[in-house]
Structures are given as C-alpha cells and as structure tokens.
C-alpha cells in the first residue's frame, strides 16, 4: 500500500474546503495519504478511528483532531457517523510562520468547545447562505484561526519534522507535475532533471515518503485516469491505452489487471451487465 498525495481544492466560493465526511454511512476507510492543507475533523455523532503517522486516535461525539500540513494520516469509520471536515490551505497562515512551517500540536484532550462551536457555525452559515453570509463566514473563520494560532501552534519544530516537511513539499510538487503530464514520456531521469535532483535521490524520496517506487507510482496515476475513460467513454482499449500514456494495449491491460483484478475488456463487459440489470 503506497501513500497518496491529495490535492485539496477549496469550495468554489470559499478560501478553504468545508464538507461532511464522505464516510458517514460507516464501513468506510481512507488509506494513508497527505496534503499541504491543515485539516480538522470534528465528530458530531458516532465515532471514527483516526491515524496520524500510524498513531491511533479514537474520536467520539464532540471530539476533534488536528492534522498538520504533510502529516501522513488515514481513517477508519466502521460505524455511521456525522463528521465535519475543514481543510485550510497552509498559505492562509503564512503571516504567523516563525520558522519554515506553521505546525500545530496534537491536543491531549480532543474536546474544545470553542473549536466545536466555530466549525458548527461555519457549516450552518454556509449551508443556509442567508443575506450577508459571506461576512459572517469571514468573522467565524478568523476567530477559528485565532484559536488555532494562540492555543495550538507549536513554538519550536524539531529538525526531523522540518526535513520531512521539506521532502514532502518537494514530492508534492513532483506528483502534481506527474498528474498534469502523465500522458507524456515521463522517465525517472527526465523528471529528476526537471526538478534538479539526481535520479537516485528522486527514487529514494518516492520510496521513503510514498512507500512506492517511481515507475509503479506513474503507472498507478495512468491506470486511474484510464479507468475513468474506460467507464465513461466508448473508446477502444487501444485508444484508452495511448490516451493515458501507455505504450500499447498490452501494457495497459497488464497494469489494469494488477490493480482491478480483471482485464479492461472484461471489466467493461461486467460494468455494462450491471447497468442493464439496474435498468430492468
């Protein structure tokens, strides 16, 4: 299992992302991943299991957890829950950066009435969108940032954490480049040269921080995009392969089978059967 990088995109009309956790029905897992945004999970009903750098945290009703930029985390939600998630782009806190990063401590007590009330209010105001809601949102959001900065901000950051954050920042840039250019011929040597790294160094940071080698990561990105094209178009298997950076249909089919357990042609047949059954 490799660690995925998540690109956080704020809500269209907000400078941050605010939503209800998609695992609210239970029986839901989010694999290990990281992103550059700061993230708060607030459980209002039920419970979830949260892991930060493999350290477990069980959150129950009224409790929250704070995830730093570039912290590797995962979630297990076996039971129904109602959880609000707030993702704050790190640049919104640049003014309070005394070292290279603004980092927060993981609270020993996961209950904070001020944070709970502010996030609930943000979600309610945003859902209602009554006249002048934009100004009210700004007011509550800045109050929340004030609580985070004055109560939870780390004054000192150890050298190992700084090094890990620098390397994950570099890896984030590289991964975003790969996702934009996955259709091209992206050799390890070519990508390393673009970012002024040696191929050995680039290979090492992929293995260390994403738990996957460069070639396998690139194939995973390509097969994920190819999967969407397979499901949503009538393009041939050969066309899908070429459209998504594979040299030929054989290479695509091999990678697809390894990921999904079926050849792409068989997967498409099964998908069409399910669609017909759903109609009838």
Task: Outline the fold blueprint.
Elements: E1 4-5, E2 17-20, E3 28-34, E4 38-52, E5 55-60, E6 64-67, E7 73-77, E8 81-88, H1 113-128, H2 133-152, H3 159-181, H4 188-194, H5 199-210, H6 214-232, H7 237-243, H8 249-260, H9 264-279
Parallel strand pairs: 1-3
Antiparallel strand pairs: 2-8, 3-7, 4-5, 4-6, 4-7, 4-8
Helix pairs in contact: 1-2, 4-5, 6-8, 7-8
Q: What's the pLDDT, averaged over the residues?
A: 90
Structural class: alpha+beta
Query: Which oligomeric state applies?
Result: single chain
Count structural domains.
Answer: 2
For the CA atoms, what is the radius of gyration? 21 Å
Shape: globular
Number of strands: 8
What does this structure look like?
The chain is of the alpha+beta class. It has helices spanning 113-128, 133-152, 159-181, 188-194, 199-210, 214-232, 237-243, 249-260, 264-279; strands at 4-5, 17-20, 28-34, 38-52, 55-60, 64-67, 73-77, 81-88. Helix 1 packs antiparallel against helix 2 (133-152), helix 6 packs across helix 8 (249-260) and helix 7 crosses helix 8. The longest helix is centred in the middle third of the chain and has 23 residues, at 159-181. The radius of gyration is 21 Å and the shape is globular.
